Amino acid sequence: MSPRALICSVAVVLALAALSPTAAGGVIVVALDGSGDTNKLGIALDMAAAGDVILVKPGTYVDFLSLDPEAFHYIDRPITIVGDGPAPLVGMMRVFDIEAGQQVVLRNLKIYGPLIGSISLEKLGVRDCAGTVLVEDCSLVGVPGLTPLDAGLAAVDVRNSAGVTFTRCALTGGPGLSSQQSNPFYLDPSAGGPAVIVDGSRVALHHCTITGGVGGNDGLGAVHSAPGGDALLIKEGAVVFAAGGSITGGAASNGGAPELPAEAAGGDGAVISGSFSLLRLVGLAPHGGAGGTLSDASSGAAGQDLIAPPGSVESFPQVARGTSMPATLREGEVGTLGVSGAPGELGKIMFGLEPTYAPLGGKKGVFNLGGAVVGPLVLGIIPASGTLEFPVNLAPGSLLGLEGVRLELQGLTFGADGLMFGNPTSTIVLAEGL
After folding, report:
1. pLDDT reported for residue 392
2. Is residue 322 in a domain?
């Protein structure tokens, strides 16, 4: 396929957006320097209507204090929040009650929130969503343990939700509490927390780095170690598809007494603790975290790679497929579309305006495009590098007067493994000068 034909295909999708009143909303710009519509993400969320895009300029938008109103954001309607340029630091988020046929997209954000006590929440929670949630190019670290009895908290907790996708995200469990000589109430360190919890939900993890939290350190002397947290904890009635990336338990802390080796155990890689759950793995294997070194130089046990009931895990050695586009692309700018797979496969691309979540079973992945779909369009043969790249240059006026359109893309390949789908990716196409 020629670059010219690819650009024409994108133009067709943008023209479809102009004809659909639900495909393109307004754009609300958040900028610390006052050049946007507001300098607060919380205010932008109050302003946003269903279908709007919140464009967040670089900067730190949270003071890391538990009472800061920018520390928590609640999302209960279909919107898109995207970092423009270097990922901005924003507060914790909870997405909930998104209805079937609706979508929430979060891309290119550092979701940090407060770092001090009295915060007993995951950094990103998804609750009771019948619609689709996409999280891409985001980084999250769970809240540290609050007392010697509290492990670090999860980075992500997904419950009772129909379709949640994470792509190229760094998800790390909260570290355990470290004891402090200056605080007599914190006598013992605590365990690291899990990175991701999935309960009663369908979740896809593409090319993500998932790591359990590290155990807290003993600041009072070589008495206690603390175990690392699990990387991926799957509870009741969940289906998780994980392709590429890594799943690694958290490391235990060092320095504990030899007679307490259990305190120096590494976190487990993936754990299925509930019934009626399934984990599909493509191109990766979970690994347990490293055990801590005790005061006599012996080591605690490494975490287990995988703990699961018989028949609840399907593993496939195939290469994980992938799709990439810039988070934002303005009229007149040049972006690069990438589709990755096994060398020699036929690479294809599909475009749409609405993300969805339709598992295909086995190693094939999840189909993520809904609404008006263009494709699949043949791009060419995957080269030896594993990634087929094409320039995308949108001429001024491509948006036909719209401020912005969220364009959904998904790459797929065809070869010896049959048809294989990569991750979805969401690009915000913006008017020139916005």
Report:
1. 83
2. no
> To 5 degrees, how large is the angle CA 409–CA 415–CA 416?
140
Instruction: State the total domains in the chain.
Output: 1
In whole angstroms, what is the distance from residue 100 CA to residue 123 CA?
Answer: 24
Question: What's residue 129's pLDDT?
Answer: 97
Q: Which residues of 294-314 are buried (b: 16+ CB within 10 A; e: fewer)?
A: bbeeebbbbbbebbbeeeebe
The mean pLDDT of 172-194, rounded to a whole number, is: 76
Q: How far apart are CA 250 and CA 194, in angstroms?
A: 8
Q: From start to end of 176-261, where are the E strands? A: 196-199, 202-211, 232-234, 239-248
Q: How far apart are CA 432 and CA 299, in angstroms?
A: 58
Q: With b meaning 16 or more CB within 10 Å and e meaning fewer, what string describes 321-354?
A: bbbbbbbbbbbeeebebbbbbbeebbbbbbbbbb
Q: Which of 114, 21, 109 is nearest to 69 (CA)?
A: 114
Helical (H) or strand (E) element with 6: helix 3-19
Of 192 and 221, the structure prediction assigns the larger pLDDT to 192
Whether the predicted pLDDT of 4 surpasses 60: no
Tokens of 171: 């998800």
Burial of residue 67, with CB atoms counted within 10 A of its CB: 0-12 exposed, 13-18 middle, 19 or more buried: exposed
Residue with tokens 């080591």: 299
The predicted pLDDT at position 270 comes to 98
The string of pLDDT tens digits covering residues 353-364 is 888 999 998 899
Domain extent, residue 211, equals: 94-180+188-316
**Residue 267 domain flag:** yes
Bond from prior residue into 326 cis (ω within 30 degrees of 0)? no
Query: Could you give the 3-state DSSP secondary structure of residue 54?
Result: strand
Give the tens place of pLDDT for each residue, 143-176: 888 777 788 999 999 999 999 999 999 999 999 8
Residue 281, domain member (yes or no)? yes
In a domain, 28, yes or no: no
